[in-house]
Write a structure and sequence with these properties.
- By secondary structure, this protein is an alpha/beta fold.
- The protein contains 16 helices and 14 strands.
- It has a five-stranded parallel beta sheet, with helices on both faces. It has a five-stranded parallel beta sheet with strand order 7-10-13-6-14. The chain has a two-stranded antiparallel ribbon with strand order 8-9.
- Helix 4 links the parallel strand 4 and strand 5.
- Helix 2 runs parallel beside helix 3, helix 6 packs parallel to helix 7 and helix 13 crosses helix 15.
- The radius of gyration is 25 Å and the shape is elongated.
């Protein structure tokens, strides 16, 4: 029996046009039409569909209502939403509710075909991964010691709960928060708990790469494409194939590179600098920034469409000042790691020393605390005292 794709559209001409566009490339699929959300839901109660392509605005039941009710009934269902240009914000909300993609009217045929093929490929991978999870449920990979998230504060527990939920999906995640708060740890935790943990985790610090080289770094280049390109080079997207790419400080990326990243997310293809060749890539994208991207969009420094693509799920990492109750555990954790790195006996921190550390303003967050712990272990007494904190920690 052929797998089925459900088209939900109240305009027959558009519905038939979608079928005519897709049936040439998807000969093994049967297309079923529904004229509104309620009719579609009744069909879904009786049978399964590999993919649902649904308009947003329809009589009796809207596309968003159909999405919400269907995912409650059959959580594994894959949706692509069709929307009028003026409803882009509503379409973005549908991504956050669980839709795979959205396409604006008038429909771009190539965009539709690409999105549908990617969605169907993703659905096959999802089923394979689900089977693997059942076979290996007791073998969940742990985050390496270097990237452990330490603490028991409510703020950190909320973050860990979100990580547990998003790790099992392939949704793109935007991680926000101040410098040194631990955004990188969140990214590594998501990768380690995901089905991609056997693949590579490739990090790109967008702020550390000159704007004229960022495209080469991300997408690679061919020999002779620019001065200094003495040989072909693979880009980070290609190196991350089958795994995860982490775009740290994504707010510092040039607008030109942003356009190419957007295309890579939409089409799952990249083109090296100086080449017309397209390379298919299968990567999960995690991004992080300490900037207010909505403000950057208003100032014309960041693409709004890329923001919506990256922020299907947003995780806001709290500052250390918002989780001072975690400082005792963090100090204990860092002192152990630092003693191992230096090859010296571990140092204790007195209770009053910890209390003094909790009173400080940690503008540099977790990273600053680690540096302070190392300084106190080198210069302070054993155990480290409140006097040592007052003497060697300048605020």
């Amino acid at each position: 029996m052929a797998s089925k794709i459900l088209i939900v559209e109240d305009e027959p001409a558009i519905a038939n046009g979608i079928v005519e566009t897709l049936e040439f490339d998807l000969k093994n699929y049967e297309f079923v039409l529904a004229t509104n959300g309620l009719e579609a839901y009744k069909l879904l109660e009786k049978e399964d569909f590999e993919l649902i392509i649904s308009d947003m605005k329809m009589p009796k039941m809207s596309g968003n209502e159909l999405l919400t009710q269907t995912l409650q009934l059959k959580p594994e269902t894959t949706f692509i939403m069709i929307t009028a240009h003026g409803d882009i914000e509503t379409a973005v909300d549908s991504l956050k509710e669980g839709a795979y993609d959205f396409i604006a009217k008038p429909i771009d045929i190539n965009r539709l075909i690409t999105s549908v093929k990617n969605a169907l490929d993703k659905d096959v991978l999802k089923k394979e991964n689900k089977n693997l999870q059942k076979e290996n449920s007791s073998l969940k990979k742990k985050v390496s010691k270097k990237y452990q998230m330490i603490g028991e504060s409510p703020a950190l527990k909320d973050i860990q709960n979100i990580i547990d939920k998003v790790s099992v999906s392939d949704a793109r995640v935007l991680i926000t928060g101040p410098n040194g708060a631990g955004k990188e740890l969140v990214a590594h935790a998501i990768h380690a708990q995901s089905d991609r943990n056997k693949g590579p985790m490739v990090e790109v610090n967008c702020a550390a790469i000159p704007s004229e080289l960022i495209e080469s770094e991300l997408f690679g280049h061919v020999k002779g494409s620019f001065t200094g390109a003495i040989k072909d080079k693979q880009g980070k997207f290609e190196l991350a194939n089958g795994g995860t790419i982490f775009l740290d400080e994504v707010g510092d990326m040039s607008l030109s590179a942003q356009a190419k990243v957007l295309r890579a997310l939409q089409e799952k293809k990249v083109s090296p600098v100086g080449s017309d060749k397209e390379i298919k890539v299968d990567v999960r994208v995690l991004a992080a920034t300490n900037k207010n991207l909505k403000k950057e969009i208003e100032e014309g420094k960041f693409r709004e469409d890329l923001f919506h693509r990256l922020s299907v799920i947003e995780i806001a990492v709290p500052s250390l000042n918002e989780r001072i109750n975690d400082i005792p555990l963090l100090v204990k954790h860092f002192s152990k790691i630092i003693s191992e790195e230096h090859g010296t006996p571990n140092r204790e921190f007195g209770e009053e020393a910890i209390q003094n550390l909790q009173k400080l303003n940690w503008t540099g967050n977790i990273r600053e605390l680690r540096n302070v712990v190392e300084r106190l272990m080198i210069l302070g007494e054993n155990p480290v005292t409140a006097k040592d904190v007052d003497l060697f920690v300048k605020k």
